[in-house]
Amino acid sequence: MPKRVDPRQRRTLIADALMRVAADRGLEAVSLRHVAAEAGVSAGMVQHYFTTKDEMMAFALSVVRDRGRRRVETAVAALGPDPAPRLLLRTLLEALLPLDEAARADGRVALAFLSWTALHPAAATGLRPDTVQLVDFIAGLLPRPPAADAAAGLLPADAAAGLLPADAGAGLLALVEGLGMYLLGGQYTPAQATAVLDHQLELLFG
After folding, report:
1. Of 18, 196, 201, which is closest to residue 99 (Cα–Cα)?
2. CB neighbours (10 Å) of residue 46?
3. Angle, CA of 187, 124 and 201, to the nearest 5°
4. End-to-end CA distance of the chain
């Protein structure tokens, strides 16, 4: 009886090969032929699972995102039930940073693919809902401004109702993404990046 092939597993194998080609030789070297050679399969097999390079690139980006999500889930699960909001937030954000070699390898590929989506905006459509969800989750963990400060005119009116602007969550996520780029480029060490993150959390939580 012929051995059954898991299409998702085969597609992931090909995506892993694509990421190795991209990491070693750059995105310009990515082609169906090069990816097939790296994966040790025929070009025809690659075309069976991915009809175009764009489709292959989008799937590879989804693999990187899934790995990042698993890193976050593992780190958060290690905290146990009901962690304090600040600890939960710091753990989540630190898990997003490329602090070890595996995360750096994925980060380099993700950065290259995100640059690619700038020229192929349709490929980034699936990223937007995840980003909105993550920003909302981060904002929900941040402390609410004291109503007295809003009443005194020190904060916007929406703070008086106990609402935190989504901009606060977006700003914190943007900081982490910027730190990730500095880590990948070698401008910052892991210790420097986490120190900046801790400083920003201290400003927000007080």
Report:
1. 196
2. 25
3. 45
4. 65
Structure tokens at 69: 């999500």
> E-assigned strands of the chain?
none
User: What is the distance between the alpha carbons of residues 139 and 97, in angstroms, rounded to a whole number?
Assistant: 18
Cβ(57)–Cβ(30) below 8 Å? yes
Query: Residue 90 and residue 88: Cα distance in Å, rounded?
Result: 6
Q: How many helices (H) and strands (E) are present in the chain, helices listed first?
A: 11, 0
Q: How far apart are CA 145 and CA 119, in angstroms?
A: 40
Q: pLDDT of 149-191, one tens digit each?
A: 444 455 454 443 444 557 888 999 999 999 999 999 999 999 9
Q: Say how many CA atoms lie within 13 Å of 40 toward its Cβ.
A: 3
* Length, in residues, of the chain: 206
98: nearest Cα among 80, 110, 89: 110
